[in-house]
Every structure is written in structure tokens, then in C-alpha cells.
Specification:
- By secondary structure, this protein is of the alpha+beta class.
- Helices cover 56% and strands 10% of the residues.
- The chain has 14 helices and 8 strands.
- The strands form 2 sheets. Strands 1, 4, 5, 6, 7 and 8 form a 6-stranded antiparallel beta sheet that branches. Strands 2-3 form a two-stranded antiparallel sheet.
- Strand 7 and strand 8 form a beta hairpin.
- The N and C termini lie far apart (107 Å).
């Protein structure tokens, strides 16, 4: 069946790439980069079925020549990290013939040119010999600037940010164009640019529960060319293993769905409720009956969860309220033992001591630590709830199952990124210590300043002291480079951790919304209770000192 694939990438100098080299490789032609003088000859490349350059009607004639167009695109950018081109990688239906696929690629490129006003070159590629024979695709290489009558003009900034909606519009337009060509040729296959979750919700709204069951699976991650090349060489690839694991889980889930359908069908036949209707209608009816049976149980479980969370929030509010009260200086009453899910007495005592303290920073630290601890407990409870829900898929809707899987996967990913960050931080700390020791050695081992040492250095025969000094300087330089590398790795790991935490928070919000639960959030510093105001003690005036007699010293 036809599948939808659309990747939007950028070609940047910061990655060591150029528009001229990218165009020569994708079109299989011979081009010379006038900016660097490099020669890129890919005329021997096989698999390129057709290529063509399209430009607006008002563009100059040279804009349709690949050599002049991409050299102009390189010359228009002056920064060393400039984005010089943008690529759209789109899968073409294998059900179409070669001429139909070329015509489809030409229309996709023309739509982009008319929409954004840049010049673009499409290159239709055939599947690789060792790859899937259905992998027909097209590379559309576009300039990052609009084509004006005088040449390249302003940048197409709307494609740089996903929030503008231009990327989603392009993806939807690609899908509509591909479906129109499939329909024109009389084929029943269609493609869809939406995610599995959006398609499930749309199918459920229309009552197509057979489609809902078919879409109830986890999305397969992309293998990538690196993992594919490693698999061809017989090497182990974690990404390829992850794809195989996801495929096995989807197959197991589909088999469980089929077994449950047969069980419901047999039960309906035994009870005399089976009617000679279509398989799709029967499946939809069975799913509706099972959903109606489990609705009350799901509602009761949600009410129980809400009551437990409300009680936990009420206990936390009571503790914070006690922390606001000033201490009267009397002996504390014996505290009752902590009940199920309650706060220990040590926490209350710590909050009271913090409230009596003059240092607000100390109190904020105590309260925020307690809030963080409670947040972790709520998150653990939410993850446990998601795991329990997946063990009983009959009682959940497709949206709830999808959010449950998403909250578990994002939580696991955030934990992995956290571990990677602390590992990178440890390496960075080790590099800092190594750099400091190397700096101390470099400061200690100094070259000789006497006449003999200076003369020996001039004739190229340094003394042993000079060699030690040079080795110390080299070690210091290497330690500095290693420190810079470890620092960059630490920063990248921190950014990845923060992104994973944001994804986990979004997944928890979706899960809480799907199960009618309040999403756990970290409290703000402004919510910390203010410490009691302590009046300063009155100052007693000191008596004036008498001058000492001159004889007493």
C-alpha cells in the first residue's frame, strides 16, 4: 500500500555541506563550486530517473540552469554557518508507473514554487538495489531565498519555525496532491499526513471502529541510512533493533485485538446476539458493548483517583498553613504518627523550624524540597496508573491507550536523558580537574632562562628542562581541548534533558486530561509561605567613655 513520508531538512555550511554539492549528488550531474573551487562530479551515479529546475515566471533565465542557480545561492550567503538550501524528501507511490511518478514530482515542486516563490529542483530516484523495491522517492532542493526579477531576494522565514503553520500546510498539500493522482489513475490506495492518534480520533468520531483498531499501534521510528548501512554489513544497530522491537509489539497487540474480536464474536453467537452483518459492523458493535460494560468501572476508578489526589493536596495545604504560624516559644505537642499517605512528623517539624528562621532562603529550600518530593510521588503514582491501565486495554479508549503509552515512553526517555546529563557532567568535572593539574604543571615546569638553555633552543637542541616544559604545555593544551569538548557535551546533554522533560510534562498533561485527573505540576517560589516578621531588639545607648589620664597607657 502507498505510504506517506515527508521530511523537511536544511543544508547548512555549519554541517560542512554546500548547495552545489547537494544539487550535483541528487541530480547526478557535474557541477563546480565557484566559491570554494571544488569539483563535484556525480554523472556516474545511477538511479536518477529525471530532474528539472522550476522557478517563478518572473525569475531570470539563468535561474533554470542548475550550475548558475546553486552557485548564486551560495554567493547570496555570507556567513560561515548559513543555511544555503532546503530539501523536501517525499515518498512516491509505487503503484504509479515511472511517467506518473515524474509528473507527480513536477506538480509537487510547482506547488512549492507557487506558494513560496523560490526556485526548486526535483530529482526522482529509483529504489536502491539492496533496499526495498517500493522505495520510490523524490528530492526537492529549494533555495532559501525567493526568486525576484533581479535574482535572489528575501529569505523564506515561514519555513524555519513550525509554529507559523507553513510546514503543516505543506505536508497536507503533499498528501492531497498524491491522493488526487492516485484517484486519477483509478487506484483505491490513499495516504494520510496525520499522526496515528489524530487518525484514531477522527475514525472514532465517524464510528469506524475497525479503522480505530487497525490504527491502535505504536509508530515505528525511522531506521536511517547509518543503521541500514550497518545492517547490510552485518553489524549490530540499536536503532534497527528498536524498530524490530516496535514491530514485534505491534504484531503482538494486533494478534491480541484479533483474539479479543473472535472471543466477543463467539460470546455473541452463544448468547444468540450474532446477526449476519458485515465484519466491520460486527466489530464496531462488539467494541461498543465492551466499552459500555467498562464505562462504570472506569468512571469509578477515576473518581477514586481524584479523591486520593484531593486528600493529598489538602494535607499539603494544611502543612503549609501550619508553617505560616509564628512560634510561641512553648513546648511542642506530641505529633500523631503519620497515616497512610500522610506527611511524617519530621517534615512538619522542618517546616515549622524554617518558618521560625530569619532566613527566607532556608525556608524556601525546605518547602521546595518537600514539594519536589511530593511531585515525584505523584508522577510515580501516575506512571503506575498508566501501566495498570495498559494491562487492562478493554476498559480504555484508543486515546487513553495512546496517552498511557506516551507518558510511559516520555518518562523513560527523560530518565535516560537525565542519566546522560549527569554522566556528561561527571566527565566535565574530571576534565576540569585534569585541566587544573595540567595548568599547575605548565606553570611549574618553565623553560630555562640561562644563557646555555637559550643557546640550545636556538640551535634546535633543547635541554631536558625545556622538553619537560614543552610536554607540560602540550598536556595543558590537550586538557583544555578536552575540557571544551566535555563542556559542549554537557550542554548538549542538558538541552536534551530539558527537551525530554518538556515532552514528559506534555504527555502527563494529555494523560491527566484523558483520565480526568489533575496534572502534577511543580509549585512556584511565590507560593512559599512568608517567614514571620522578627522585630529588631531595642538598642541600649552606651554610656560615654571618659578620657584616660595621660599617665595611664
Amino acid at each position: 500500500m502507498a505510504i506517506y513520508r515527508c521530511e523537511i531538512k536544511t543544508i547548512s555550511r555549519s554541517q560542512g555541506a554546500s548547495a552545489v554539492a547537494g544539487a550535483a549528488y541528487r541530480a547526478g550531474i557535474d557541477l563546480t563550486d565557484e566559491r570554494t573551487g571544488e569539483h563535484h562530479n556525480y554523472s556516474h551515479k545511477s538511479g536518477v530517473l529525471a530532474f528539472e529546475v522550476l522557478a517563478p515566471e518572473s525569475a531570470p533565465a539563468w535561474a533554470r540552469d542548475p550550475a548558475q542557480l546553486w552557485n548564486a545561492a551560495e554567493a547570496a550567503e555570507t556567513r560561515k554557518n548559513s543555511v544555503v538550501a532546503r530539501e523536501f524528501l517525499i515518498s512516491l507511490p509505487h503503484e504509479l508507473n515511472a511517467d506518473q511518478r515524474i509528473e507527480l514530482a513536477r506538480e509537487l515542486t510547482a506547488n512549492l514554487v507557487n506558494r513560496f516563490g523560490f526556485a526548486a529542483m526535483f530529482a526522482v530516484h529509483a529504489p536502491d538495489k539492496k533496499a526495498d523495491e517500493r522505495n520510490h522517492h523524490v528530492h526537492i532542493l529549494a533555495t532559501t531565498r525567493r526568486m525576484e526579477p533581479t535574482g535572489l531576494g528575501a529569505k523564506t522565514r515561514e519555513l524555519d519555525d513550525r509554529k507559523t503553520g507553513a510546514v503543516d500546510e505543506v505536508r497536507a498539500q503533499f498528501a492531497a496532491t498524491i491522493n488526487r493522482h492516485l484517484e486519477h489513475t483509478g487506484l483505491a490506495e490513499r495516504v494520510d499526513h496525520r499522526s496515528l492518534l489524530d487518525r484514531q480520533v477522527a475514525a472514532a468520531n465517524t464510528g469506524d471502529f475497525a479503522q480505530v483498531a487497525a490504527l491502535d499501534r505504536s509508530p515505528e521510528p525511522k531506521v536511517g541510512r547509518t543503521a541500514t548501512a550497518a545492517a547490510r554489513r552485518g553489524k549490530r544497530s540499536p536503532r534497527a533493533e528498536r524498530v524490530q522491537r516496535v514491530r514485534a509489539e505491534n504484531a503482538q497487540h494486533a494478534q491480541a485485538q484479533a483474539d479479543r474480536f473472535r472471543e466477543l464474536k463467539a460470546r455473541a453467537a452463544a448468547e444468540g446476539r450474532l446477526q449476519p452483518t458485515g465484519e466491520q459492523a460486527l466489530h464496531a458493535r462488539a467494541l461498543l458493548e465492551r466499552r459500555q460494560e467498562s464505562a462504570l468501572r472506569l468512571q469509578a476508578a477515576a473518581v477514586t483517583e481524584l479523591q486520593a489526589i484531593d486528600q493529598s493536596l489538602a494535607r499539603r495545604a494544611a502543612v503549609l498553613a501550619r508553617a505560616k504560624k509564628p512560634h510561641k516559644g512553648v513546648a511542642s505537642k506530641p505529633r500523631p504518627p503519620a497515616g497512610a499517605g500522610g506527611h511524617p512528623g519530621k517534615v512538619s517539624a522542618a517546616l515549622e523550624r524554617a518558618a521560625r528562621s530569619k532566613d527566607r532562603t532556608h525556608m524556601e529550600e525546605v518547602v521546595m524540597k518537600e514539594a519536589a518530593k511530593q511531585l515525584e510521588e505523584l508522577i510515580e503514582e501516575l506512571i503506575a496508573r498508566a501501566k495498570r491501565s495498559l494491562q487492562q486495554p478493554d476498559t480504555l479508549s484508543p486515546w487513553q491507550r495512546s496517552t498511557a503509552r506516551q507518558v510511559i515512553s516520555t518518562h523513560s526517555n527523560a530518565e535516560d536523558k537525565k542519566a546522560d546529563f549527569f554522566l556528561a557532567k561527571s566527565h566535565r568535572d574530571d576534565a576540569v580537574r585534569t585541566c587544573r593539574r595540567a595548568e599547575a604543571d605548565a606553570n611549574h615546569f618553565q623553560p630555562g632562562t640561562d644563557v646555555g638553555s637559550r643557546m640550545a633552543r636556538l640551535i634546535g637542541r633543547p635541554t631536558e628542562r625545556d622538553r619537560h616544559a614543552k610536554d607540560a604545555v602540550d598536556r595543558h593544551r590537550e586538557a583544555q581541548n578536552e575540557y571544551q569538548r566535555s563542556r559542549r557535551l554537557r550542554d548538549d546533554a542538558k538541552k536534551a534533558w530539558e527537551a525530554a522533560v518538556r515532552d514528559a510534562e506534555k504527555a502527563r498533561e494529555d494523560f491527566a486530561q484523558a483520565f480526568n485527573m489533575p496534572a502534577p505540576k511543580f509549585p512556584k517560589v511565590e507560593d512559599v509561605p512568608q517567614p514571620p516578621e522578627v522585630k529588631p531588639a531595642p538598642q541600649v545607648p552606651t554610656p560615654p567613655t571618659r578620657p584616660r589620664p595621660p599617665g595611664l597607657r
